[in-house]
């Protein structure tokens, strides 16, 4: 029973880390990466769909993304969606859409660093909430006399070690992202 709770907690903490990685992929560094356009929504036959459902996104060089629409008629719509996406990008339309990434200024780097720190803090909060949930379940088991106090103490220590491990991983990923952002 306790092992199931710990396994569930670890799975949920791992998912928080995956969510952090996804959040970091949207934080722009000096390099072009297709995931930067992952959240761009494009109007398509009356509903908004993710860009990757109406076009393929690739990297032309370190500072340019290439968007190849599946339908030629979508070029202007995709161009407009990218411009309005609050990413600060100005696509160039032709047969394909080229999205040059502007050089990061010191101010932009600091803003991206703030975004990365915010993503990391959200991950830490999620991991701590998972710890709280698991420990609450352990305390409920103790109240119902399904486990002993020694079992509860050991489970609390194990959950704390797990939490510390995942928080350390968040810190490691944040440090790597900040180093990538500050690299000129």
From TrEMBL:
Keywords, sorted A to Z: Cytoplasm, Protein biosynthesis
CDD domains cross-referenced by the UniProt entry: RRF
Classification via SUPFAM superfamilies: Ribosome recycling factor, RRF (SSF55194)
BP terms from Gene Ontology: cytoplasmic translational termination
Gene3D superfamilies referenced in this protein's UniProt entry, alphabetically: 3.30.1360.40, Ribosome-recycling factor
Domain of life, per lineage: Bacteria
Family membership noted in the UniProt record: Belongs to the RRF family.
Protein name: Ribosome-recycling factor
Species for this entry: Aquirhabdus parva
Protein encoded by which gene: frr
């Amino acid at each position: 029973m306790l092992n199931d709770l710990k396994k569930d907690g670890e799975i949920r903490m791992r998912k928080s880390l995956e969510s952090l990685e996804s959040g970091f992929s949207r934080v722009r560094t000096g390099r072009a990466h297709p995931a930067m356009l992952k959240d761009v929504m494009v109007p398509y036959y009356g509903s908004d769909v993710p860009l990757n459902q109406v076009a393929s996104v690739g990297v032309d060089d370190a500072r340019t993304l290439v968007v190849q629409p599946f339908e030629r008629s979508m070029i202007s719509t995709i161009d407009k969606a990218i411009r309005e996406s609050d990413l600060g990008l100005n696509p160039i339309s032709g047969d394909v859409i080229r999205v040059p990434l502007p050089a990061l200024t010191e101010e932009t780097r600091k803003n991206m660093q703030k975004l990365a720190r915010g993503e990391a803090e959200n991950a830490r909060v999620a991991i701590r909430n998972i710890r709280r949930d698991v420990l609450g379940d352990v305390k409920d088991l103790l109240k119902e006399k399904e486990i002993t106090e020694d079992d509860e103490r050991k489970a609390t220590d194990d959950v704390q070690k797990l939490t510390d491990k995942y928080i350390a991983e968040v810190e490691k990923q944040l440090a790597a992202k900040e180093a990538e952002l500050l690299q000129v």
